[in-house]
Automatic annotation (TrEMBL):
Annotated signal sequence range: none
Keyword terms, alphabetized: FAD, Flavoprotein, Oxidoreductase
Gene3D superfamilies referenced in this protein's UniProt entry, alphabetically: 3.30.465.10, 3.30.70.2740, Vanillyl-alcohol Oxidase, Chain A, domain 4 (1.10.45.10)
Protein's recorded name: 2-hydroxy-acid oxidase
UniProt keyword Oxidoreductase, yes or no: yes
Length: 452
């Protein structure tokens, strides 16, 4: 096989170098761009395998992408082939008897969730980018707001089909609930950012769709009070979602969405969602929590409209910032009991550096999202100030026992912070695994494991 056109005969699914859209040369931030020789849209695992064999024979890099929502440079190509899996977006099988669904990796998260919920089933992982692909979610082990109760993507992947760097196809895992038959190879691919193989199909675990849910907001006078209440919440109940946000941050979402956030006189909030089988139990849990929290303001969403407005405001915060100024989004994770320490540090750093920072995030698992705003800085000043702030933030994160990424991945943006956080012996073991899986270093070779 001498040409890609022997594999992909439809000319619309092969785009030559000069015609590749700029959107395919970057990531979700659209700030840095790479280059590539060709863009290919496969539709089947067989086509992916044949393309990979072609790339292996011709020593061509492959950068795999889905919807391009990645925020750390993992989809910025480094020459060679861009493999766009967005046309591999079909549901292969819904198996209600085993509570599983098998899908191609290019299906969008929102389409999968809508499909299974029509059948009274539920796929719990719920990252912020609902237009991301399931393959992308698996490659970054995406989390989201419901992780505090239900866990992250890794917890719902039962089987995967993977095209290896030599073009061979592996099927790993099964529909069985329990599996201790040999090494759990699938977990090497989950979160590997496309460096070990190309996931083309997966079987995901589902659960029964919760019958009812309720969202309510607890208002506080300070962000410190809100964060100090997190452990009380977690000791009292198991929330579906537990988010923290300051009033000044929520206002960004208000302006962007056009909706009003409840309790405007409070300065900080915990947004809490509960779900379950009956509303009476949820009401009892909510009242018990408010009793334990003591004197505070609270608001209960009375219908779906109010619920949707609250979560729309929370979900639009990053886009609200991007609509005004360039920003750098960070997803740092620290132990739950150190969230307040990290937030206080960001406030001190903001005062010292005069760089505006908006902090919010997943209070239930210590995942802090931080938007660093460029404002009117020129390119040179922005890069200099941003680097200094990054160094300070990631250093503080490590001091508190945290890590540089909770769900976005490492990509190209966090390589130095990854190196500082992970012992050399661990990194060497990862490089050894990469060498075994991809000896020519062709798969997503622009990201962290291959550039350290």
């Amino acid at each position: 096989m001498n040409k890609l056109t022997d594999i992909i005969t439809d000319p619309k699914r092969i785009i030559a170098k000069n015609a590749i859209p700029p959107s395919h040369l970057t990531d979700g931030l659209k700030l840095k761009y790479g280059y590539a020789d060709i863009l290919v849209y496969p539709k089947t695992t067989a086509e992916v395998a044949a393309i990979v064999k072609y790339a292996n024979t011709n020593n061509l890099n492959i950068t795999t992408r889905g919807a391009g929502t990645n925020l750390v440079g993992s989809t910025i190509p480094n020459g060679g082939i861009i493999l766009d899996l967005s046309l591999m977006n079909h549901i292969v099988e819904l198996d209600k008897q085993t509570f599983t669904v098998t899908v191609q990796s290019g299906i969008l998260l929102q389409d999968l969730q809508q499909f299974v919920e029509k059948h009274d089933l539920f796929y719990p992982p719920d990252p912020g980018a609902k237009n991301a692909t399931i393959g992308g979610n698996i490659s970054t082990n995406a989390g989201g707001m419901r992780a505090v109760k239900y866990g992250v993507t890794r917890d719902y992947v039962q089987a995967i089909e993977v095209v290896m760097a030599n073009g061979s196809v592996l099927n790993i895992g099964s529909k069985n609930v329990k599996d201790n038959t040999g090494l759990a190879l699938k977990h090497l691919f989950i979160g590997s950012e496309g460096t070990l193989g190309i996931i083309t199909q997966c079987t995901l675990k589902l659960i029964a769709k919760p019958k009812v849910s309720q969202t309510f907001i607890v208002g506080f006078n300070t962000i410190e009070q809100a964060i100090s209440s997190i452990t009380t919440v977690l000791h009292t109940l198991t929330p579906t979602a537990l988010e923290f946000v300051e009033r000044k941050v929520a206002q960004w979402g208000e302006r962007y969405s056009g909706f009003k956030f409840p309790l405007p006189n409070s300065q900080a909030y915990l947004i809490i969602m509960l779900d379950g089988s009956d509303l009476q139990t949820i009401e009892q849990l909510r009242k018990l929590l408010l009793t334990n929290l003591g004197d505070c303001d609270y608001f209960v969403a009375e219908d779906n409209n109010q619920t949707n407005q609250i979560w729309t405001i929370r979900g639009s915060l990053v886009r609200a910032v991007e609509a005004i100024t360039e920003q750098d989004p960070i997803d740092i994770v620290v132990p739950i009991n150190r969230i307040s320490d990290f937030i206080n540090f960001t406030k001190q750093l903001e005062t010292q550096t005069h760089m505006r920072m908006l902090a919010f995030g997943h209070a239930g698992d210590g995942n802090i999202h931080l938007c660093i705003l460029r404002d009117n800085r020129d390119d040179k000043q922005w890069q200099s100030d941003l680097q200094n702030v990054h160094q300070a933030l990631y250093q503080k994160c490590l001091e508190l026992g945290g890590l540089p990424s909770a769900e976005h991945g490492i990509g190209t943006a966090k390589v130095s912070y990854y190196n500082a956080a992970i012992p050399e012996a661990n990194r060497q073991l990862m490089r050894t695994i990469k060498q075994q899986f991809d000896p020519k270093n062709l798969l997503n070779n622009q990201v962290y494991m291959t550039v350290v």
